[in-house]
Design brief:
7 strands, globular, alpha+beta, 171 residues, 7-stranded mixed beta sheet
Length: 171
């Protein structure tokens, strides 16, 4: 099961223009020394293939749901800043201010890079993924649910086996 992250480009560290440029360039950016090991999470624990949702602080809200494509590399933003490229899964037409529960990974919590823990994925699905991005975890990635072929294969196998047994039975 892939990891899901919250990433925030807050107004204290990013101008409106920078946030727009990073959004258009499909880059997420964080400082390597954010408190509570959030910088370390961004540079070392986050992996290509992980999912994230991007917030532009809660004044603007949720912006995009994406999948990390690259390892962390130094950013042009300045000393100690790192960036990762991503692919867009869903981009909202306009930022939507989050209204919901408060957890370390929710947009209304003062965090920059925070993992959604596996025991809270269902809550994430209900409160953010479905409500704002119109997706379920199963739709988000095949790792969350068996592929369609795997779900149908046993019935095809059973049917083929019963036909073969019927044809090859010796009395």
């Amino acid at each position: 099961m892939p990891t899901i992250w919250k990433i925030s480009h807050g107004k204290n560290n990013f101008s409106r223009e920078e946030r727009s440029d990073y959004l258009n360039s499909q880059l997420v950016v964080a400082h390597g020394s954010i408190k509570k090991k959030q910088g370390e999470a961004f540079t070392e624990r986050m992996n290509p293939g992980d999912y994230f949702f991007l917030c532009h602080e809660n004044d603007e809200g949720l912006v995009v749901l994406g999948r990390i494509k690259s390892d962390a590399v130094e950013s042009n933003k300045g000393k100690g800043w790192f960036e990762r490229s991503y692919e867009v899964i869903r981009k909202l037409d306009a930022p939507i201010q989050y209204q919901g529960i408060e957890r370390g990974w929710t947009p209304n919590y003062n965090s920059t890079v925070k993992e959604v823990k596996p025991n809270e994925l269902k809550l994430f699905e209900e409160d953010i993924l479905q409500k704002y991005f119109d997706l379920t975890l199963a739709e988000l990635d095949s790792d969350f649910a068996p592929p369609q072929e795997a779900r149908t294969a046993p019935s095809k196998l059973s049917e083929a086996t019963s036909q073969m047994i019927g044809l090859n039975t010796i009395y």
